[in-house]
Amino acid sequence: MVGSPVARHVLVTRRIEEVSGIRPITLLIASGIALIAAILLVTGIAANHLREQALTTAASELARIDSVLAEASNRSLKVADARLAEVAGRLSQAAAGDATRFREAASAPETSALLRSELGRSPPLDAIALITADGAVLDHAGAWPAAELAPGDLAAALRASPARTSIIGAAIRDPQTGAVSIPLAHRIDGPGMPIGGVIGMIPAAEFTSLFAAAPLARDAVTVLLRPDGSILARYSEQPDTSVDKTIRNSSLDAVLGDITATITRHFSGKDGGWQVEALRALTDYPAAVAVSRSSEQVLAEWAHQGVWFGGFALVGALGIAIMVYLIARQFQTHDALAVIRAEKAIAAIDAEKIEIERARLAAEAELLKSERLSVLGQLTATVAHELRNPLSAIRNTLFTVKELVANAGIKLDRPIARMERSIERCDRIIADLLEYTRDRELNRTVVSFDHWVADVLADQNIRPPIALTAKLSATQASVPIDLDRMRRSSSIWSRMPRRRSGSCRSTARSRSCCAPVWPTANSCSPSRTPGLGWRRKLSPASSSRCSAPKVSAPGWGFRPSSKS
Question: What CATH topology corresponds to 52-298?
């Protein structure tokens, strides 16, 4: 019979197939794939969230630092512009709004001394100069870049922006030293129109040192931009690029339009890499500070975290795959065991059916045999009864013939004796047949073997010259027998004809040691005999010895064990 755990497994498997219409292994694999896909999807979502968070955090940090740098740059320009405004105020007071008197005041020695004194103050200026309304240089102090700077452009810009008193020009690089200076022009007003201006050359190093003090990453780039996108100052720990390059985009216009706003954006640089940038305009001057970082560097830490997330996801997916594989193997093993045990159960049932069928056939054969024996017994009893009637008539007739012969004096004793013996023989045969047809259970009783043998010998009618000597020594032996049947069988044996040939015989002239011979080769073996279930088996005469009680009797199926 199939074991209960396997049977429950088979029932659960069949129930799953009935409800879902899918094999359990297929459902398990599909569930494993769905779980792995869910893990990978969640990992991807988490990784993307961390990426966006990293970019947002970097943008927020850049915007905060950009606001600080923009405020510091605006303050540095205001300090330098205040010094230019002081010079412009003195000349405007001396000129009293007249362009001619302004030219005269600018040419005065004390003005030159004033300009030179401004160079030594902090923050330092590389050069300072006085220009007219049309851009002509009246006087200057310091290393004035006459060849690189076009004062007329600054004068035109001052006239074009009446709302502004100061304006920033394009950065100038000294061809000899390579130093970069930022021109800052301050207007000197006259009646209705400007009569001139003061230009100070601010070293770009002032701003780069300011930018270097900011807590930024090594890949960060900080630039100071004009409205036209030209770079005034740039700082980066990476290899520097030319400041002559310009950056023009719509975000710059937007941030200059709203000086209170800080704009962050993601854009693709000229090298093809993505950049994160924060823009903030200066409060009092037409310029903006931009701080940018490479997205690859920003996401470097995220990439490290992503690798860990991906590794955990792959390990989880691999673990689930292994678990699904092992469970599927377990399902297959259970199925195989269930099939094997079912086959064994079917084989056992078939064997049991075969055994039952064999037992049924044996019972039918036994029943048929019993019926045939019963019919044979009935037939035997009928024949025996039918034979006794004519046998009785023959016996009576023989008795009459015997009397008539005796009265007549005729000598027929021997023929008549033969006839009587034949009649007795037929009577014994009929009695044996009737006894054989009787069906009675054996009523066994445990008796002492020596006592039973002594009783049997005592019942025998032994006539001279035969002598019987019994020496019984099996005092401890006992045997379960049916005394009635054994007594009847002994009487049957005593009536059997004496056979002089064969191995079962005795002599009156010698002391014989004879005993029952049990089933061995060349012996008198017990077998089926009417009424007892024994049969005499006679064998040729031999000189074999036996060691049972010393008994000598004719016709008992014994053989002599010794001769004297």
Answer: Beta-Lactamase (3.30.450)
- Contact (Cβ atoms closer than 8 angstroms) between residue 562 and residue 543: no
Instruction: Give the helix, strand, coil percentages of the chain, each rounded to 5.
Output: 55, 15, 30
What is the residue extent of each domain of the chain? Answer: 52-298, 440-560
Which stretches of the chain score pLDDT less than 50?
Answer: 1-3, 6, 241-244, 498-564
Quote the CA–CA distance of 440 and 424 in Å, as a whole number. 26
Alpha-carbon gap, residue 184 to 77, rounded angstroms: 8
- The rounded percent of the chain whose pLDDT value lies above 70 is 77
Q: Measured between alpha carbons, how far is 254 from 381 in angstroms, rounded to an integer?
A: 138
- The CA-atom distances, in angstroms, between 165 and each of 113, 132, 160, 215 are 24, 15, 11, 34
Say if CB 293 and CB 222 are below 8 A apart: no
Cα dist from 113 to 49, 92, 139, 142, whole Å: 63, 17, 11, 12
Cα–Cα distance, 337 to 344 (Å, whole number): 10
- List, in sequence order, every residue forming a beta bridge with 128; answer none if it has no partner: 141, 200
Nearest to 42 by CA among 258, 370, 312: 312
This model's pTM is above 0.90: no
Q: Which residue has the tokens 């002391």?
A: 511
| Residue 146 to residue 175: CA distance in whole angstroms | 12
Question: Which stretch of DSSP H or E encloses residue 187?
Answer: strand 180-189
User: How far, in Å, CA of 67 to CA of 281, rounded?
Assistant: 8
Nearest CA to 287 among 223, 202, 241?
Answer: 223
**Which residue carries 């220009």 as its tokens?**
131
- Does residue 170 contact residue 202 with C-beta atoms inside 8 Å? no
Sequence-ordered alpha helix ranges (H) in 96-182: 99-107, 109-119, 151-160
Using one digit for the tens of pLDDT, what is the confidence trace for 213-223? 888 888 889 99
According to the model, what pLDDT value does residue 68 have?
Answer: 92
Nearest in space to 282 (alpha carbons), one of 247, 243, 232, 246: 232
Cβ neighbour number for residue 30 with a 10 Å cutoff = 12
